[in-house]
Amino acid sequence: MSPGSLRRIQARWRSRPGAQALAEARAEHHRTLRKLAHDLRNPLNSILLMAQLLEETAGSPDVARIAGRIQKQCLEMNGMVDKALESAPE
User: What is its EC number (predicted)?
Assistant: First the structure.
């Protein structure tokens, strides 16, 4: 498809009734996902750092093992947040 064809198709799409409302709704959805990701990552990073500190200063193997599990779960949650953002429309 040539760039000119693509521009004509985009112009027709944008001129349709409701296209502007749809674009605004998508933009709002994307902003909401970004805010949610930010709000989830902040406490996760704090928990991750505290778990790392706990693991380094653990007085027993059990405490170190539990701290390691906490770190693993935080990293998995961060990965889920990343995947949610990747699947969000631009």
Answer: 2.7.13.3
